[in-house]
Amino acid sequence: MELMRNKMNKIHPLSDETWNEFSSLLKHKQYPSKHKLCKLGQRATDSYFLIDGFIRVYLISENGVETNKHIYPSGSFVASFTSLILQNKSIVEIECLTECKIVEFNYADFIKLSNSRMDLCIMQRKNLEKFYVGLEKRELESVFLNSTERYLALIKRIPKIETKISQKNIALHLGITTVQLSRLKRNLRT
Predict the structure, then answer these.
(1) What is the distance between the alpha carbons of residues 109 and 132, in angstroms, rounded to a whole number?
(2) Crossing angle, helix 178-189 and helix 167-174, to 10 degrees?
(3) CATH for 2-144?
(4) Measuring CA to CA, how many Å separate 54 from each of 50, 69, 137, 167?
């Protein structure tokens, strides 16, 4: 809980009253690896704060090919944001890559509270701005960087990721095969 409050206060300070009201919405959960927090076609209702572990948000093509859209480490807010905001079916799946400790909260309740608490509203706006900037950066990396440069950016952004999640998921995130990832790593060592 302290990790979450510190993270939120770094984005924008919350009063004790706001934090107390917000914390009444929180549910602590623990999920095993491979647990789906949100499935393709499901209408999302909850947002998550990852206390410990790794989560991926991924897409599945019409022919069943998976592509990791984003990998989230501990200390991250995670959700199917488009589904929450538009109140429609999710176009992504959210899966625990490791055992995960999570704080869950209902998004509609959060929005209702943020509408009455200006500090929470400002924190949410700033968090969404930060999220958007990160998405745009990731999009630019996928367009302008080669696979080696994307790999180096990933391990810089999430140190020790290679010891925490499978090489398959790292390759899916980079948009390459595990064989290409293995070759890329071998070339970096030489």
Answers:
(1) 22
(2) 90
(3) 2.60.120.10
(4) 8, 14, 20, 14
Domain residues of the chain, as ranges?
2-144
SS3 per-residue string spanning the chain:
CHHHHHHHHHHCCCCHHHHHHHHCCCEEEEECCCCEEECCCCECCEEEEEEECCEEEEEECCCCCEEEEEEECCCEEECCHHHHHHCCECCCEEEECCCEEEEEEEHHHHHHHHHHCHHHHHHHHHHHHHHHHHHHHHHHHHHHCCHHHHHHHHHHHCCCHHHCCCHHHHHHHHCCCHHHHHHHHHHHHC
- pLDDT per residue over 158-175, tens digit each? 998 999 999 999 999 999
For position 77, what pLDDT does the model report?
A: 96
pLDDT tens-digit map of 125-164: 999 999 999 989 988 998 999 999 999 999 999 998 999 9
Q: How far is CA 144 from the centre of its chain?
A: 22
